[in-house]
Amino acid sequence: MEDEKFCLILKFVRRALSVSGSDIFEERWRPSAWTLFALSVTYAYPCFSLRFLINNYDHMSYEQLAECIALLITCLDAIFGIMEFLVNRNEWNNVMGEIHNRRFQYKSKRISELFNLYYDRNYQFCKALYSVYISSALSLLLNPVVFPDPLRYNLPLPCVIPYINPSEPYFYALNYIHQTVMIFVVQHGLIAQFGSLVTGIMSACCQIRALKIKLDELNEQIADPTVKPDAIREALGEIIYHHNCTKEFILLIQHKYGVVYLSMYMVCGGIVAMCLNVIAESIFSAATLLFMAGVFSIFVHCFFGNLLLIENDNLPDKIYALDWHKLDVSVQKSLKMLLENSQPDVLLHGILMPLNMSTFVSIMKAAFSYYSILSKKQDSK
User: Fold this and answer.
1) Residue 12 belongs to what H/E stretch?
2) Given this model, what pLDDT does residue 380 score?
3) d(CA 170, CA 185)
4) pTM reported for the whole predicted model
5) Which of 31, 75, 333, 338 could make a disulfide contact with 35, Cβ separation 3.0–4.6 Å?
């Protein structure tokens, strides 16, 4: 059975992966010549960038240094994400298969409409995410036209291919093509990674919301004197089953995304720290845009992780609001077990820190403190 709205989201992720020739969700996918070319170009950039930093470190401005390092770690993060898709292809297919199958566990029109609503929101967010990333890629590629910089040979990025002088027309074109391919592969790799992570979290939120709808339907059955106790007991057993399945799904995405979340924290934290050193001297610089991109990435991940926390936090109240005093003692015991099992917080972790808004606030507080110290040092000079 196919879910058309979920297929739209999966198609979005697959389209992003296909830019690097790594559409692992294609049943008969095999590495192609384009896969090898795109990945080779992308993997070569960190090596070129590191060599460029070593050779030009002495006469680089701090702004150029921060930009080079920020782009280097961003590229490494995208490479890690693409390799994660390729190496753990079967696991990613299982995760997406689980997300797809969750909808068909419920036989309720209200829950079906709920999944439609969540998939619509998820797809709209994916489109907005795509627009943000592609616009940033295009701005990088058009930057040499709008703001030509001879120090970087009027290229989008400061790093060049070793032993190929971009001051010559043909070599300039070669460097520009290399950077263009690398930028689009990296951006689409991040889009696929970001889109799949948000899809998993949104699916978990939707399943918890579906449990609340099932609890409302159960309360209606309790209030209806024509409904037999066996039917109520059966409905409660179904809710307990779906709740256990939801918790197993959350553990699955935590296991799959934990290392990816850690990578995101490290990369974005590094970008923020590097850019703050430049912003402390002058806020009107290219580092400001990189800083905003890093903050945006951390915020979105923490925001969606916090949504899951909020949804689960309201579940015990929904269970307790049932007319449990009208039930048999045996049914009340089952309800008590469900209530106790739903009370622990559901937190996604980046191994070292939880994925919620408290973490985002803590990171921003630390960044502001760091910025204040740097600003005072600049003022004292």
Assistant:
1) helix 4-18
2) 61
3) 23
4) 0.86
5) 31
